[in-house]
Amino acid sequence: MGGAAYNTQMNPDPSTLPVRNLLSKAFSMGINCIDTSPYYGPSELLVGDALIQPAITQSYPRSSYIIMTKAGRIAESEFDYSPSWIRKSVRRSCERLHTDYLDVVFCHDVEFVSPDQVIGAVRTLFELVDEGKVWYVGISGYPHKLLAELSVRVKKELGRPLDAVQSYCHMNLQNSTLRQSMDKLKNEGGVDTVVNASPLGMKLLTGTFPGSFHPAPKGLRDTCARAAEFCKARGETLPRVAMRWVFANWRGATLSGVSYLEELEDNIGAYMDVAVSSEEDEEGKVVWKDVDERKVKRWEPLWEGVQEIFGEWKDYSWDSPPRGWVFGKRQSTL
After folding, report:
1. Is 54:18 a contact under the CB 8 Å cutoff?
2. Residue 251 has pLDDT above 70, yes or no
3. Which of 85, 137, 180, 242 has the smallest count of CB within 10 Å of its CB?
4. Spatial CA neighbour of 257 closest among 32, 14, 78, 3
């Protein structure tokens, strides 16, 4: 359950969003992991408020869901990976989210700081694991090759691997290049879990203007709009076509980025549409099984049609950080 949408970048007034109902609905559908960050404006506060409502506390104990948040990114051009700030950020996140511990903490957008700063922040998070405040440690960012390189360096220099790495916008219908880094992440870096965030490219694959915050160039945004028209002419929507592709191709891995009620319902529908079967575990919860290749074949013409429209924009990645960025451009003050 992605929390980035509960931010003024994507919504003028996030406080008007039905976050309480969204989380309750998500939990009831078996979506039991929340991904947020202090950088996402009021996101942690809104999620924390939802988590203490009776609809959640009476049915879902803390041990039944996972909270993933981040540390180190403060504002668009402000970062602080110092030990004191990482510790303060974790304490603040616990307070906002009304929890004694955080399941996963990622160093946020590691490409904007130096590798040495990343190593230092990860070392601090490992210390917090030893103290019981954090359970798992990860890094997040856009350039997946850098994420892989850093994972190898963490394992080598700190003597223990990262538990998780979160890549975003790099394993979807428009850009699937995350595959190129999986072997290095898993085998050389020893990373346990790779999280595929923003499966709709931060709203890019909705076919509508994602917002002025989005770094995608106009040519890519226009191409996605054409792809949306292509799907509409065939009785489908681009988000559903794109989500089916992700579910069929990102097998047995972790996916993050669902933020709206209609996305919850559409995504479950898309998942069911490519799942061969499901069964209930001992507690009566639905467990999804493997993808049905026969059903996948049905969707391949749509996927191929959309990817043909992408043309030169297929597997395109924008610059992150932007050209001219200088590490340590701004640092926060405690």
Report:
1. no
2. no
3. 180
4. 3
| Segments in the chain forming alpha helices (H) | 19-28, 43-51, 54-57, 83-96, 115-130, 144-158, 179-183, 218-232, 238-249, 261-274, 293-310
For the residues of 304-318, what is the DSSP string, one character each? HHHHHHHGGGTT---
Provide the 10 A C-beta neighbour count for residue 143.
18
Distance CA 240, CA 311 (A): 20
Give one DSSP letter per residue of 243-281, joined into a string.
HHHHHHHSTTSEEE---SHHHHHHHHHHHHHHBS-EEE-
**Active-site residue set:** 40
Q: What are phi and psi of 115, to 5 degrees?
A: -55, -35
Q: How many Cβ atoms are within 10 Å of 56's Cβ, its own excluded?
A: 18
Count the Cβ atoms, other than its own, within 10 Å of residue 189.
24
What is the rounded CA–CA span in Å between residue 322 and residue 333?
24
Pair 51, 23: CB distance under 8 Å = yes
Give the global pTM: 0.90
